[in-house]
Design brief:
The structure is a single chain. This protein is an all-alpha fold and 140 residues long. The chain has a domain of 77 residues. The chain is built from 1 helix and no strands. The radius of gyration is 58 Å and the shape is rod-shaped. It comes from Aquilegia coerulea. This is BLOC-1-related complex subunit 6 C-terminal helix domain-containing protein.
């Protein structure tokens, strides 16, 4: 019976040792796998971070170009608007001069109508005078 106890004890110890070794190997295996997975995650994270850095750099450059183009466009628009305003003021000034010249010409034409009327009257008087002189000169 004592041999049976020893053999059962050895068998129990052996089973416990096997369990401990298996657990130890499993723990080691899990640690190694976890480290590998962590390394992969770290590499992927670095790659993603670099991608984001590149993306933000590209976006920053694109935004800078768009902003620069917008500033150039606004400057061009401002210049064009200024030129249009100058041209409109110049055209309005010339239009006012034209209108004033037309008004002066109209006033002068009214004076010319009076002169034409006076000229007609003068012409009649000259014709009457001419007729009178012709009658006087033809007298025998």
């Amino acid at each position: 019976m004592s041999e049976t106890l020893v053999s059962e004890n050895q068998s129990a110890n052996s089973t416990e040792n096997s369990k401990e070794e298996l657990e130890s190997e499993t723990k080691q295996f899990n640690k190694d796998e976890i480290m590998k997975v962590l390394e992969i995650v770290e590499r992927d994270s670095m790659a993603i971070a670099e991608s984001y850095t590149s993306l933000f750099s590209s976006l920053r450059l694109a935004l800078s170009q768009v902003t620069s183009s917008s500033v150039d466009h606004m400057q061009c628009f401002s210049d064009a608007a200024g030129r249009i305003q100058e041209s409109a003021l110049d055209a309005a000034t010339r239009g006012n001069r034209y209108i004033n010249s037309c008004l002066r010409l109209n006033e002068q034409m009214k004076g010319a109508e009076n002169l034409a009327m006076q000229l007609k009257i003068l012409r009649r008087n000259v014709d009457v005078l001419d007729s009178a002189v012709n009658k006087l000169v033809r007298l025998p």
